[in-house]
Amino acid sequence: MTTISRTLVSASALLAALALAGVAHADVGGPLVPPGNGAPTGHIVRSTLDGHAYQTGGIGDEEVADMDANRAGYNTRMTFSVGSDNAYAANIHLRVTSLTGATVFSLDDAGPLTDLSLPPGRYKVSASYGEAVKTGTITVGRGGHASLNFHWNHEHDTGTDQ
Known about the structure:
Blueprint: H1 3-21, E1 24-25, E2 32-33, E3 45-49, E4 52-57, H2 61-69, E5 76-82, E6 87-88, E7 92-98, E8 103-110, E9 113-116, E10 121-129, E11 132-140, E12 146-152
Parallel strand pairs: 5-12
Antiparallel strand pairs: 1-2, 3-4, 4-9, 5-6, 5-9, 7-8, 7-10, 10-11
């Protein structure tokens, strides 16, 4: 048996073992999807934008635990939810500005949790879920943690304030 044939047999055996274990690969380079409803899991994004470190995600208990475990570098948490069951909401357009209106941080695909590192100060925050915009203010102190929760009554909530 040639080296190429042995490699193909090994790869085939691995794929068969994964199939027996109930694990499917979503796409090349994509996440493994556990057996069940086949719904894709979310992705935690950790990056720096506008000079501020952030992480956003939190779809499922494992991601929430991962974000909580990596929260030390962030001093601000924003949570987004919708409906009477307080389901997490994602795909939020998030904008943080100074009190004078200068944009400090902006992210088009935030949530359901977003942790952010901001310098001490007071900020205006707007969060858009579909056409509904909620606003709030947050004060970030030295060495402390700040949090802000945004909730929409339902997906088509047209309310403009929190």
